[in-house]
Amino acid sequence: MPRRILIVDDEPHIRLLLEQTLEDWAEATGVELLSASNGLDALALIQSQRPNLVFLDVMMPQMNGFDVCRQVKQELALEGIYIVLLTAKGQEFDKAQGRAVGADQYMTKPFDPDQVVRCAMEVLGC
Q1: What's the distance, CA 120 to chain centroid?
Q2: Is 3.40.50.10380 the CATH number for 4-124?
Q3: Which end of the chain has fewer beta carbons closer than 10 Å to its terminal beta carbon, N or C?
């Protein structure tokens, strides 16, 4: 089964930045990059493509990242999907809410590109 990373953000420039951050490493390791611009599309991709890792924005239209994470981790109970909430909301309350819905990790924007690649390497084991 191919290894996949899903990048979810309603801001096109953030999606592009994450894709550019990961593309060389992904190409070298055979990891497929997927993207979505809202929570509903993300949830559909997660169910159909089963990415190993999801970089998930919190504040998005149609369905926010907390709700997507809760659906994946608690309601659908999909296993083997590591979710990193990626958001400008860095208060302890927000981090606690992320943990409550089942997020595996929480990164605040602006993010360190090296940290994004390290996370992908650790989660996918390559």
Answers
A1: 10
A2: no
A3: N
CA distance linking residue 103 with residue 47, whole number of Å: 17
Cα–Cα dist 78/115, whole Å = 25
Domain residue extents for the chain: 4-124
What is the predicted pLDDT for the residue at 30? 96
Q: In angstroms, rounded to a whole number, what is the distance separating the alpha carbons of residues 56 and 53?
A: 9
8-23 pLDDT tens trace: 999 999 999 999 999 9
Spatial contact of 52 and 121, defined as CB atoms under 8 Å apart: no
DSSP 112: P
SS3 79: coil
Q: Which of 47, 48, 38 is nearest to 7 (CA)?
A: 38
**Residue pLDDT, tens place only, 23-70:** 999 999 999 999 999 999 999 999 999 999 999 999 998 899 999 999
